[in-house]
Amino acid sequence: MTNPDSSKPKTKPNGKKDNYDTFHESLAAPIPNQMYRSRIDLIDTQPSVLEQLIRYIAVILDILIAIRFFIKLFAPSSTSTFVSFIYGMTNWIILPFQPLIGAPPATLTGYFDWASVLAIVIVSLVAALLISLVRPRPLDRI
C-alpha cells in the first residue's frame, strides 16, 4: 500500500510548497558463489625461500653497517674486541665507498661516516633489485 501523502506537495518550514520525487534506496543482494578479487589478490603473496634469504642477508648487513656507523659517530676505543669484530665484518662493504666519500683524518674521533650511510643505501637497493628479479611475475605480464 502506498502512502497517499507521498504524492502531495510537502510544506517547507517557511510555508512554501515543494514538489519532489521520493527516493527509495535498496541494497542489492550479492551474487551467490561469486567472489570479486582484483588481479593483485590473485598473485601468490607468500615470499619464496630465495627472497627471504636475500632479505635476511640485507637486513643483517644493514644492521652491522649501522652499528659501525654509530661506533664511528661516538668514537669508542677501537681496540675492543666487539669494535674489531664489527670493523672486520663490514670493511669489505665500506672500502669501495671510501674513495668516493674520502677517508677522514686519522686524528679525527667521533665523525659522521658517510661511507657507511652510502653502503646502507646501496645494500638496500641491491637487495630490492635482487628481490624484484626473483619474485614471480603475474601471468598477464609475461
Q: What does the model show?
A:
Helix content is 49%, strand content 3%. It is built from five helices and two strands, in the order E-E-H-H-H-H-H. It has helices spanning 39-42, 49-74, 81-94, 98-101, 114-134; strands spanning 10-11, 17-18. It has a two-stranded antiparallel sheet. Helix 2 crosses helix 3 (81-94) and helix 2 runs antiparallel to helix 5 (114-134).
SSE order and pairing:
Layout: E1 10-11, E2 17-18, H1 39-42, H2 49-74, H3 81-94, H4 98-101, H5 114-134
Antiparallel strand pairs: 1-2
Helix pairs in contact: 2-3, 2-5
Segments where pLDDT lies below 50 for 5+ residues? none
Supply Rg.
33 Å
What is the beta-strand fraction? under 5%
Mean pLDDT, rounded to whole units? 76
**C-alpha termini separation:** 59 Å
Largest sheet: 2 strands, antiparallel
- Secondary-structure-derived class: mainly alpha
Return the string of H and E elements: EEHHHHH
How many beta-strand elements?
A: 2
Question: Going across the major beta sheet, what is the strand order?
Answer: 1-2
**Oligomer status:** single chain
Number of helices: 5
The coarse overall form would be: elongated
Query: How much helix is in the residues?
Result: 40-55%
